[in-house]
Fold this sequence. Notes:
The complex is a heterodimer. By secondary structure, chain A is an alpha+beta fold. Chain A is 40% helix and 20% strand.
Amino acid sequence: MMDYEKLGLKAGIEIHQQLDTAEKLFCRCPTTLRDASERTGEFHRYLRATESELGEIDRAAREEMKLVRKFRYYTYDTVCLVEHDEEPPAPMNPEALEICLTIAKMLEMTPVEQVHTMRKLVIDGSNTSGFQRTALVALSGALPGGCRVETICLEEEAAQRVEDETFSLDRLGIPLIEITTAPCMHTPEAVQEVAGHIGMVLRSTGRVKRGLGTIRQDINVSIADGARVEIKGVQDLDLIAEVVRREAERQTNLLAIRDELRERGARVDHTVVDVTALFAGTASSILKKAKAILAVRLCGFAGLVGRVIQPGRRLGSEMSDYAKKCGVGGIFHTDELPAYGVTAEEVARLREFVGAAEEDCVAIVAATRQRAGCAAEQVMIRAEMAISGVPEETRKMLEEGSTAYMRPLPGAARMYPETDVFEVAIGDALWESIAVPELLTGRAERFVREFGLDEGLARQVAFSERLALFEKAVSAGVRPTLAARTLLGTCRELARDGVDVARVSEEEILALLSAVEAGRAAKEAIPDLLAELARTAGGAGTPGERVDAAIETMGPAVSQADVEEIVRRIVAEREAFAREKGMGALGPLMGVVMQELRGSVDGKVISETLRRELQRLLS
Amino acid sequence: MERLETGDLVRYVNGGTALTGTYIAERDGMAVVKLESGYNIGTSLEKIEFVERPARQPAAGAGVVVQDPDLPELAIISTGGTIASRVDYRTGAVMSQFSASDILRAIPELGDIARYRDRQIASILSENMQPALWRELARAIYDEIRAGVAGVIVTHGTDTMAYSAAAVRFMLKTPVPVVFVGSQRSADRPSSDNAMNALCSAAVAAGDLGEVVVVMHATTNDDRCAVHRATRVRKMHTSRRDAFQSTGMEPLGYVDYPSLSVTLSDEAVRRGTEEPELRDNLEERCALVHFYPGMPPAVLDAFEGYAGLVISGTGLGHVATDWIPRLREMIEDGTAVVMTSQCLHGRVCDRVYNTGRDLLSAGVIEGEDMLPEAALVKLMWVLGNEPDPERARVLMQTDLAGEIRRRSI
């Protein structure tokens, strides 16, 4: 167990949440995600980094430039020329701004007086323009536990990567808010708690998108003497603490490697050696097909390149990530060789050829001459960083919570004004008109208090995507317990049994619950009726008519007179049994009646009728 | 407090937080501040206070780019269209680049095609272009040709680029390529079409062509540029990359990207076909009128005394019958009136309907299949060089610079 206080752990988070608006942030397209197979066309573009005033390309942008890449975009009938970067943006979507302000107010933030939209340079292809439009909306908010929210920004979602350099434009431009906290968390658990709290606040608005990929967390982590590392795209809330733990571990191990390298007087030999000829007859399939194999001597690195720094990751993995930026598949190093078809004899020849001493490690890259040269350079750069300590980086999460290098941390200087979008003033009147919704936690408490739901169910309802429907049902006179159990229990059970309940519209569920409350159907019949509605989904008629038709199909309406007649007949048929058991016959006879009525009458009605009939018989 | 200047360090206090930032400007009573995070915000002036004025950084050492002396020399003449720009991320300002060195620094691949000399004759938005500047432009191009360049690239705002290209085409005979180029998406953005258009235009300017053309994206893809004849091209979309389209003919050729291989059709005039010649007189008292239903003939009074009038008429080349008496008067008073069609595609024919026949008998000149804009600049040139009205009428119906097609396809 690590002592995080002693490590000097500091962490902050950035939460990105898609908003559930009718239209995108800077065009009038719907915010609908599409399947790639529905695309109506595709086009391709090249992106080119622009020069800043100092003639310097932003370092994150420069890194991306190492590969000359052509980007391909899928387009749909729900996408317009704005996403194609073929038309200037429309004015900022006021609905998105209002949701953003609502969240800012819930977090007790202060809005800026005038919102300016910026262009943030992003040339990984995920934005057709080469920049992301983003605007700072409010500053300085409060979180439980004394942590602070620094900023909330409203920005456009990037295009979804389909594969490699192919992107899908359906997601591009969906409004996204970015909430940035101060680096004010000091344990992995605190990070997870804060992320959970902010997520709850966001969902309390009822106006954010739900489901996989609609919320993403970036985590900033550093330890004393380490470096700030930004871990991108953590989608699973439950993994956050683990990601922080593993990053603290990685930095601790990198610092230990640094100390040992310094003690050994380690250095990087800057001569790149061509060793292609050495592997002329190799059995290694990777080396065999390479046009060029280049070697780099890392003096004093032996044993450390292969050292584990995080589950599944070694220092060598870090070097490999850097090399991959040049378009190579990875690197080999002598800490892990012989392996991959490379023999001990080849390793010995390699070490001798580059003049490696026992305490040296040799890394090799195999690719075209140009790519291998670029990759060798990258290995040297990363090796030198190991001597300096922990590099500042943007990293991506791997499964289980380890991370891999993506790119250097972006410099601050990569934004300039989006001149095609007017500033938006946030006046006092607008700010005051923003209503603060009840928090989901508060709502759960209220459901216990007002509706008598038990705590677990109340919380489940409050945090569920069906919350709005639940509230609608309750205000339409449906008993809260019935509504909650149907929406959470019954629907889930049916889905588990293979019934496509998702096809039953909210209006139909509402009509069904109302029918039950009106005594037109028994609550026992709800599962059958939902299944029937799912089976006939998409059929003609209003929701009310469709529910009536389902009731008709599943069991024609049975009047109280019918019930009394059936009960009387059944009791008469089993008179001896009833007289023998007395009121104890109620239970067994109940089953018989229920079966006959196949759930078309509320059990309570049957049981009362039956009780009366038995009492009449026995009196 | 001192009067704030762009670049000053300021403290911004809002809702209990204090942040530092850079003062950018005051706009409509609000200060624009760039915070350290890079974001701009607008704030009332009382929420910021001056901290310090950082020492001015000397302008970036924009050295001269060394060019390959073995490559052909091209002239880049800029009129204000932005082929390259640079962003100052400190203040967010976007600055256009005009010198050959600046352009080469922004688009280094240009250096593999040719060497360049630069000349800036204007720095204007193309909607502010004037016939006087067309003449200056034609003279500048002519001078460069006489000085021996292998080709000329003119950077131009896209709005009126087709007018300028056509005007230059009428004024100038050229043995070398004269290529107009611009960009539809601003040069500061990584996705701008500027670099590809510039590279394609350089490939054409160094190539086998011998006439005035517009070179711009052929499709929304970054795959090829089209080479359009100056007198047959039109901007047909407000914002798309492939806004420029040839009308009534296929483009003269294409440039593949990124290979930059140029293919020209048989129709394209080849290098060395014409001798350099400049005839830069323009009769500027010419106008273009777009007719609409119900447009009162009194509108024509505004053109009283004009030497020429091009009408963009309906369909085959019509205006309302109540215009005809007024047009007849103007023609009798010496105004040359040329009919074109707002259909843009197809040929004017005033011999089909009565209105057309009446227009002809009033003396209106059928503008064949000329684009209205091309007809306007042609009329300026014809009237500027041919004083005889009858001969001018014949010239207006004669193909002088590829503006009229013998056959409609």
